[in-house]
Amino acid sequence: MWAMKGKLFKPPLGLALLGLVLFAVRFSEGYNDKYPLTAPFKTRNMHTFRIAIIADLDSISKSPTEETTWISYLKKGYLRYLPGRDTIVVNWDRTDPITLKTNYAIKDRSMELSELVTYDGKLLAVDDRTGVVFEIVNTEAIPWVLLMDGNGRTTKGFKSEWATVKDRLLYVGSIGKEVITYEGEFVNNDPLYIKTITPEGVISHIDWKDQYLRLRAAIDIYWPGYMTHESGVWSEVHQKWFFLPRKCSTEKYNYTADAYLGCSYLLSADADINGIRAVQIPSVDGSRGFSSFKFIPTSGDTVIVALRSVEVGDKTATYITAFTIEGKVLLQDTLISDLKFEGIEFI
């Protein structure tokens, strides 16, 4: 029913459909859904993509040469996908990575960038220390929005770990694990919230506790056991969520043991995180946990390229791997760097 001169009337079907079409056009105006931003080079047998990874340097992100400055590295390369042969080859640029800088920090920490994602025609990176979402423009990291922890009514920045696009909203999630004391006692559920962000930067805070608990239960993990997340992707093709958890344990959290509890499951679920399916991914080293992944764009969301990161004491490393959603490995873990890179994207 529409209003006209103070009265309600039912428009003809054709007029109503025209109104819906015009609404859809207006809704889509200005939104850039191009992905990847650089078109791949395709031959009959090979698809070549530009890729990038982003560094989370943790406490060493503070610049040793510039005051009140924190840095990260953006490393670029090429991924070549040969679909007929189930082959993937990755080569990195020979030039030095781009150094990204910021002067924004919380408690002397910043620029610990944990994910790269394309949204509305922009390349974004999320900081797991401050909660700032940066837009990467050439060699600059420009702050876009600030995400606060939990329900948003806190003074602590959101520990942003994964990001993806669903229904033209940017979804940003944290580790999906309760905050606990060093003794393993419960403190709060703030990391079990997720955030959605509109293209205009409007933020919503959503309690995802039940969804995270269902993901754990899919592989028989219950409190005080835990599962941590650093990578999650919504697939428009499958209309499903996909997660590669970083750590999994059926036991109470232990700092020393945690370093070797890299998870080796691909979890998929419907839009409400129901009907969860778990596929085991081969792993050769428990210290390597998934920190980011993307579907290869021309694979029909059947082939994943992922980063595995290592943090054992002062030792860090990053590996790249690729496999199908059924768990067939196409690229064995290949060392990229002894630095920790935690975000990958097709650019």
What does this structure look like?
Keywords: Calcium, Hemostasis impairing toxin, Hydrolase, Metal-binding, Platelet aggregation inhibiting toxin, Signal, Toxin. Residues 1-30 form the signal peptide. Its EC number is 3.6.1.5. With 347 residues, the protein is mainly β. It has one domain: Apyrase (Neuraminidase). It contains three helices and 28 strands. The chain has helices at 13-28, 209-217, 255-258, and strands at residues 2-4, 7-9, 41-42, 47-55, 70-82, 87-92, 98-102, 113-119, 122-127, 132-137, 140-146, 162-166, 169-173, 179-180, 186-188, 193-197, 203-207, 226-228, 232-235, 240-243, 247-249, 265-269, 277-280, 288-295, 303-312, 315-324, 329-337, 341-346. The strands form eight sheets. Strands 3, 4, 5, 6, 7 and 28 form a six-stranded antiparallel β-sheet that branches. A four-stranded antiparallel β-sheet has the order 8-9-10-11, with no helix packed on it.
Q: Radius of gyration, rounded?
A: 21 Å
Structural class: mainly beta
Q: CATH superfamily, called what? A: Apyrase
Return the CATH architecture.
6 Propeller
Shape: globular
The number of distinct structural domains comes to 1
Beta-strand percent range: over 45%
End-to-end distance:
45 Å
Question: Which fold name corresponds to the CATH topology?
Answer: Neuraminidase
Q: Report helical residue fraction.
A: under 10%
Low-confidence stretches are 1-9, 13-28
Number of strands: 28
The total count of helices amounts to 3
Main CATH class: Mainly Beta
Mean pLDDT: 93
Report the sheet with the most strands, covering strand number, pairing sense and barrel closure: 6 strands, antiparallel
Catalytic activity: a ribonucleoside 5'-triphosphate + 2 H2O = a ribonucleoside 5'-phosphate + 2 phosphate + 2 H(+)
Signal peptide: 1-30
Organism: Photinus pyralis (Common eastern firefly)
Cofactor: Ca(2+)
